[in-house]
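FAQ: What does the model actually see?

It sees only this:
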Amino acid sequence: MNNDSKGSLDLGAERSLTVAEVALSAAFLCLVNIGIIVGNILVLIVVWRTSKLHKPNYYFLCSLSVADLLVGVIYCPLLIASVINQTWVFGSVVCVAHAVTICISLNASLMSLCAISIDRYYFITKPLHYREIVTSRKTAISIALVWFHSVFWAVAPLFNWGEYVYEESTATCKPNWSGDELLDKTYALCLALMCFLLPVLVMIIAYLRIYKAARKQLRNIQNIQLSGTAANSMDVTKSHKAARTVSIIIGMFFLCWSVYTAVSLWKLFASLSELPARLVRAGLYLAVSNSCVNFYVYAVRDKIFRQGLRHMFVSHRSNYMYEDGTSSNLSRAARTTPSHSRTALELGFPAAASLSQRFSFHTSL
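And it is asked to produce this:
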């Protein structure tokens, strides 16, 4: 439902959904919300506590987690309330603020995914020059640009370039993809190009090249094996994992975003035709669930992150397991370990890693 005028929203009437639809939608969003909050908080804590993860690629992962946390902490609770009430009950000002929040978080999430794909592309294709290309300073600038880009497109409608409107089918406020005015049309078109199509295109190109590099590495290893020369089986495994991870990344991304994108583009270019309300809701819910999926695709599949996560819980348990003040064997081992190798043992990491590890997620994806 469109605005009566810019600056005021017609929040419309309640939707007529069945009890089963409301219950299923609310249950799904509650599970997604819990996954978003728990998963992304764990990412931030593990990266903060694990010095081994203080690297540019993990800083991009933290940026992604912060963006996803905005969805879980601010957007999802109000969305769940609107689903249960079948209408927006918090007023027009909060509705617009809600729309700004989701625009910032989803845009920052997409741009962070784009930055991660570029980072991994350079690591795989230019491993010898990676540390010169991707520095901590360049990473900080890139993250700042990601968030500036996201905030700019989210607040533009507040300054009359584009507008936010109430959408009855989802009972939330969203950018007006089917506006009649020139400013509304140009904003919607630029938003689609700059905040979705461009980063997605960059991601596809980067991951296809990473996939190609991984497959080439795998063929080289297999040729070495066929020629009778011994080859490291770990290299084969890592190359397979790199190719498989790329497939998972692209597959999950399109699963979560394809419906929302198709709906938005349909509204932009075919505004005279209404779409089924269930399809519109499904597109929004799947896009929101991407903030939960990112934790698994980009963090849990990372071996070093898993080690850091495991160490965090093992360390916590060793510190509080004994009430009589005695310490665990792990604590005693850490204290008796020479200082030059203590960090590696405490974190559960090997003292050195082979170059072939760049085809694991930590070093390739």
